Structures are given as C-alpha cells and as structure tokens.
Amino acid sequence: MNDKVFSEINKIIERDNKATTYKFALLRGVIDIIQDNSPYITIYGNKVFIPTGLLIEKWMMYYYPILESQISIPQSNGEKNLSFSIQLQKLISIYKNRHGFIGFYEDLKRNGAPKDLNNEFLLLSKQIYQAITTMPMKHIGYSINHRLYSIFSIETGRRNLIPYVFDVNFLIDSFGKFSIPTDYYQSFKILGSFINGQDSLLLKWAEFSVNASKKRLSQEEVIAVVAKNPMTDRDIRHSKKIFESELKNSGKLYCVWTGDPIRQYEIDHVIPFSVWRNNDLWNLLPTKRTINNIKREKIPTPETIEKHKEQLLYYWEMLDKVENIKFQKEIKVTLLGNNSELVWQDSAIKQLQQNCEYLISERGFEAWNC
Hints:
Blueprint: H1 3-15, H2 22-35, E1 42-44, E2 47-51, H3 52-68, H4 85-95, H5 100-111, H6 118-134, H7 136-139, H8 142-145, E3 153-156, H9 168-174, E4 177-181, H10 182-195, H11 201-212, H12 219-226, H13 237-250, E5 253-254, E6 261-262, E7 266-269, E8 284-287, H14 289-295, E9 299-300, H15 302-307, H16 309-322, H17 324-336, H18 344-361, E10 367-368
Helix pairs in contact: 2-3, 2-10, 2-11, 3-4, 3-6, 3-9, 4-6, 11-12, 16-17
C-alpha cells in the first residue's frame, strides 16, 4: 500500500464517470466481499482474483430495495433505466407474495431459488454480469490511467451452465473471475469500512440520486433505502430448535467455549452479529449464559478457536448430520470456498481462525480469550 493508491481511489470516487450508480455499486460490492474475507479470494503475484458471481449477488442485494421502494430513487441521469431493472422488478413483483426482500435473500443464499424461477434468476444474473463487466469495470480508472480496464480485469468469463439449483454457489461457479491489483486489495481490506461508510460511497450514491431527482428527495430518504439490508435481526430460531431436540434426546448439551455440560444455555454468534451479519448454522452454537455475557461483541482469538476446536467440531459435525444440505451450503460460501473438496473440518477451522485474526488485527475489533 502507498499514498499513490489512496490518491487514486479518491480520484476514482470523485472523478470517474457518474452517468449511473454502477461505479458506486461496483466499489461497494468489491469492498464488501473483501471485508467479508471471502474464502474464494485468491492472490497470485500482484493480482487478487475474486469470483464475479459474488459481485452479482451483492448487486442483487443493493438494487432490490431501491427498485422495490415506494419512493422513486433515480439510479441514472435522465430517463434511462438500469439495464437490468425490468428483470429485477419482475422478480420483486413475484416475491411480494414470497416474503419480499428477505424471501429473495433466503432463496439466493440458502434455500436455492424455486425451480420455476431458475430462468428468471439466470436472466437477471446475465444482465447484471453484462452491466458490471462492460461498464464500471471497463471505465473505472480511466481518469487516472487513460485506458480501459486499467484497475479491473476480467480473467475468466461466464460459462453457459444450466442451474439445477440456482443460488450463490451457482453464481460463483458460473460467472468466472475478475482481478484487481494487490495494492488496491490491501487498501480496501484495511480502509474499506471507511470508504464504504456513509461519509463516502453510500453518501455519494445518495447525493447522486438526490441530484438526479431534481432535489425532490432528501439524502436521508435515499440512504434509508440504499443501505437497507435483509439481515436485520439475530435469527436463532432454527438453531434453537435443533439444540432443543438434541437436549431432549441426549439430556444435556455442552458449552462450546468451556466444554461444561449445560441444560440452561444461550445461542452464541461465534463471530458476533454486530460485526458480521451472519446467522449461518455453523456460527450459532450453545454456550453458558455467563460466558455469552462476557464474550458479547468480542472476537475469539485464533488461539481460543484452536483450544476449543474439539467442541466446535462436535457441534459442526452434529449440525452437518442433522441439516446436511443447509449446513454444507452455508459453510462452503463463508468458510470453505474452493477448499471444500478437502477434509472440510480442518479447512473450516483454519478459515475461521483467519477471519478472526483479520477482524482483530486489521479491523480493530476487541479480542476474546477463553
């Protein structure tokens, strides 16, 4: 990292083409993927490679609430619509009777889209892919380097696969990879939370829409929609049912952080929900109430994870047995990535340790030892 990269990022945000909000969506998506510490990110030499499918999924999440909103929030100058707005609005209409934004999110991330909607999701994905790769990826950095694809490079294109189950795993497998320079990756990794904060990308996005509406909208109205997230609550209901059943059958559970037998327990987010909005089965494990109160929003250190690896794996293997498809789908996307063909337990523990180390040492969250 160096000052030159920081200066270039600032110039990209301020100067590069602003005909639509695509630039903001691209930068926001890449930063979010990096901040998630996705296991699918790979580094070779001076390039960092990221599945384009992860970016497509982010765009679906960003633009769904904007196009669903009762308030008209312009995303382009003039009367021109986003290239994928008609198709996304079609799915929004369908999901009005399928739990709306949350139902859309759950199908894409966990359940898989209903088979009768596979073609609709596939068409939307292709349109978003086309928008991403031929517009913001192509033009970002032109004001600095005076050439196209100067920051983002399309490394492998999409494959013409037919989805058996349409979900985020299909997106990852089907839409190739793009790359960015390692200097940009390191900058986004450390400062991405500031760049993506309301004082920067989200605010710029809101400013654009306010201006495009001829000042009919306020920044507050726009930000409330643009920053909307389907994961607003700590949802432990499904996990609670699984552990209640286990308690009823075996007569006891064990605290994941002490190994002590427990009958009264709470569900702990291994990585706190406030830090990472994740309600995956692997991240929700039973613990003593006193331990949960101490841990709170702290991040378990890699040493703590290693110390309690046996208890973590005990529950992960139990969950894998009880909810195999759901558990494997979730842990593949968030912890395993391309390592899923190996012994998944070892790969998942290692990635969890890396995620926690990253959150502690580079993001500055408080460490927790037990």
